[in-house]
Amino acid sequence: ENKMFKTRISLIALGLMAATQAMANDQAGAKGFIEDSSANILLRNAYISRDKKHGTQDQMEWGQAFIGKFSSGFTQGTVGVGVDAFGLYAVRLDGGKGHNGGAGIDFFKPGNGDTKENPTGSPHNLARGGAAVKFRISNTVLKYGDQMPELPVLQYDDSRLLPESFTGTLVTSNEIDGLELNAGRFTQEARKSMEHRDSGGLKAINVFGGSYKFTDNLSASLYTSDNEDVMKKHYLGVNYVHPISSERSLTLDLNAYKTDIDKQFVDKAGLTGDSNTIWSLAATYAFGAHSITLAHQRSTGSTGYNYGG
Question: 252 in helix, strand or coil?
Answer without folding.
Answer: strand
